[in-house]
UniProtKB/TrEMBL annotation:
Positions of the Metalloprotease TldD/E N-terminal domain: 22-86
Basic and acidic residues composition bias: residue spans: 331-341
UniProt-listed SUPFAM superfamilies: Putative modulator of DNA gyrase, PmbA/TldD
Name of protein: Peptidase C69
InterPro entries: Metalloprtase-TldD/E_C (IPR045569), Metalloprtase-TldD/E_cen_dom (IPR045570), Metalloprtase-TldD/E_N (IPR002510), Peptidase_U62_metallo (IPR051463), TldD (IPR025502), TldD/PmbA_N (IPR035068), TldD/PmbA_sf (IPR036059)
Keywords annotated in UniProt: Hydrolase, Metalloprotease, Protease
Gene3D superfamilies named in the record: PmbA/TldD superfamily (3.30.2290.10)
Keyword Hydrolase: yes
Biological process annotations from GO: proteolysis
Source domain of life: Bacteria
GO MF term set: metallopeptidase activity
Domain Metalloprotease TldD/E C-terminal intervals: 227-458
Length: 472
């Protein structure tokens, strides 16, 4: 999009008024969205989002400006505007940037722009038909397919220069069942840093059928019991718990603002010795995978909690400098209009050694969670609340009747210390994680785990400073 010399010239202009650090993020994003409602295609949208954001930091002051004008003249103007927030005189030599190259490739087989829209529409229509033919009690189905091709250029006054192409595809099915005055919804989704080849690997018709069966299951389910009880969370439930119970609290900006319950606990036991928590941006094909974060730092695998001991946090450039730590490749932004902040990528509890079936068989009574909905967390004290999208009671080591309307409430550090069994399996889910008004794609995962005691059916107050993940 811009030459190396032009980027250096723009960064020099941004530092003209005395800034300590300058950064430019240029983005060209192609999106396609197809939606089916009421048995017909209601939406076929495509568009291009184009622009650049400029950040200048002076001491504790940050200035951010953005523009849709990607001419050299337009970007120089934005650089001059951003630079005025930094007072003082210019010091140092002119900026020189060096290109960084990715450590791995996405191996995209069928880029979305090489697939005719008619093929995408057909994929959506097939899923719609599959969901509806499961049972006549399925009254409404919505299916969505979306893909993104994002070309980015990042450069900063520390000498980083990165060009990257990112491709993501997602598919979502919601099925609504109705009978005897009851209305219930089942949902399923898939997605990743993949092109249209994702539909060779996964059947969207099977996905749609699963969404309908979940809605029907909930129609026949009994209300969930309330109270404290053991909870077994299967691997297929996805990693909402790890994302909410500890993930946000391990983002360095919240730690530095003293908004994290984990703030002063490096080196301390914050979870059961069975629990290891990892954030890994390098897992090929996953929805939160990044070759580079949105500041040009390589995506990394980092262990946050190791056998229950808190080892570290997730940093972007700004928080890393404040803590005198290296960045961890977690600086992310929704678009060029937003400044980067520390965010998760693919976050999971590492598998253990237990047979998942034996975990259930060794549970006398409790709740089995097969599918999680969304969740929220108050990072200041660690309190969280999750919705259970599919759950069953466990009696004498056997899975019995399904239940509906269950919620799980608790406190992140307390809950993680109560994990007493961890399976050798691992299941991923995708979502859009919201924080500070920005949404970014993430994956989360966990093995089958047992928590000795959780509150089922209760509620917890979540403050306006809470964070959430929306399941796609």
């Amino acid at each position: 999009m811009l030459s190396k010399n032009e980027l250096e010239k723009i960064l020099d202009a941004a530092l003209e008024e005395g800034g300590d650090f300058a950064e430019i993020f240029v983005e060209k994003k192609f999106t396609t969205g197809i939606g089916c409602e009421d048995n017909r295609i209601e939406q076929v949208d495509s568009g291009v989002d184009l622009g650049a954001g400029m950040r200048v930091i002076k001491g504790d002051t940050t200035s951010y400006a953005y523009t849709n004008d990607l001419s050299l003249h337009g970007l120089m103007q934005v650089a001059n505007i951003a630079s005025r927030a930094a007072a003082g005189s210019r010091q140092g030599t002119p900026v020189k940037i060096t290109k960084r190259f990715p450590q791995f490739d996405f191996d995209i087989e069928l880029p979305p722009d090489m697939v005719p829209v008619a093929n995408k529409v057909e994929q959506v229509e097939r899923a719609n038909r599959a969901a509806r033919r499961v049972d006549e009690r399925i009254k409404q189905v919505s299916v969505g397919l979306g893909d993104v091709i994002q070309d980015v250029v990042m450069a900063n006054s520390d000498g980083i220069y990165v060009e990257d192409k990112r491709i993501r595809t997602r598919f979502v099915v919601n099925a609504v069942g109705s009978a005897a005055g009851q209305i219930q919804t089942g949902f399923e989704s898939l997605g990743g840093t993949q092109g249209f080849e994702i539909f060779r690997r996964y059947s969207t018709e099977e996905l749609a059928e699963a969404a309908s069966r979940r809605a029907l299951l909930l129609l026949e389910a009994a209300p969930a019991p309330a109270g404290k009880m053991p909870v077994v969370m299967s691997a297929e439930a996805g990693g909402t718990m790890v994302h909410e119970a500890c993930g946000h609290g391990l983002e360095a900006d919240l730690v530095q603002k003293k908004l994290s319950v984990y703030g002063e606990k490096i080196g301390q036991q914050v979870a059961s010795p069975l629990v290891t928590v990892v954030d890994d941006a390098t897992i090929k094909g996953k929805y939160g995978t990044l070759r580079f974060d949105d500041e040009g730092n390589p995506g990394q695998k980092k262990t946050l909690i190791d056998k229950g001991i808190l080892k570290g946090f997730m940093y972007d450039n700004l928080t890393a400098k404040k803590s005198q730590r290296p960045p961890t490749g977690n600086g992310r932004r929704e678009s060029f209009k937003d400044k980067p902040i520390p965010r998760m990528t693919n976050t999971y509890i590492a598998p253990g050694k237990d047979d998942p079936e034996k975990i259930i068989q060794n549970t006398t009574y409790g709740l089995l969670v097969r599918k999680m909905g969304g969740g929220q967390v108050n990072t200041t004290n660690g309190d969280f609340v999750f919705d259970v999208a599919e759950g069953y009671m466990i009696q004498d080591g056997e899975v019995t009747n399904p239940v509906r309307g269950a919620t799980l409430t608790g406190n992140g550090p307390e809950t993680l210390t109560l994990v007493d069994r961890i399976g050798k399996d691992l299941g991923f889910a995708i979502g859009t994680c919201g924080k500070d008004g920005q949404g970014v794609p993430v994956s989360d995962a966990q093995p089958t785990i047992r928590i000795k005691e959780m509150i089922v059916g209760g509620t917890v107050h979540v403050s306006p400073s809470s964070h959430m993940i929306r399941r796609l």
